[in-house]
């Protein structure tokens, strides 16, 4: 049986795909998601009135003009291996923290300070490993200097050295559980989350949010 145009006959007479075809298929498989993002971002590019509207301006993404379809080939050639590595780190972090907590924490109780530090270390290490796998090798913390006296009272003072050691609130947006997981590696403190009540039902993640991170769950629509 003759080989198709994408195959070549080997020494044994069997047909096999050539290396150029394999590399081309690999490139399309890995880069196609980014090509789709570029296409949709340019198709639905923010309008001038969106940039002038204070309500929609913060959500307008303006960096897509810096990307190109060719450049995406070099940045996303190993997209799926990196993505699966990051997801794998999340999975094993969930397994380890759930196993440790179930073994040493009685039902209905909260984990103690020592166990909390161990779980936080595992989650942070997995989160940072995932970020490195996704080619995020460097990050820093910049605390914005802003006067909160209007909301926290006239006695409030900015404390740069001990600001993260006190109670506070971090506000962020996310598109997936991966974004939430990365916060555990980025923030200098390990936060509890305000999450929708249905998160409790998500295997592993719900248990970590409730027992390990001691998050607050809210029911949507409940006033």
Characterise the protein shown here.
This protein has helices at 19-43, 48-52, 69-75, 79-104, 113-133, 149-152, 177-186, 205-212, and strands spanning 7-9, 15-17, 194-196, 216-218. The protein is mainly α and 223 residues long. It folds into two domains: 1-77, no CATH class; 81-223, no CATH class. The strands form two sheets. A two-stranded antiparallel ribbon has the order 1-2. It has a two-stranded parallel sheet with strand order 3-4. Helix 4 (79-104) packs antiparallel against helix 5 (113-133) and helix 4 (79-104) crosses helix 8 (205-212). The longest helix is centred in the middle third of the chain and has 26 residues, at 79-104. The protein starts with 6 loop residues before the first strand and ends in a 5-residue tail after the last strand. The model has no long low-confidence stretch (mean pLDDT 80).
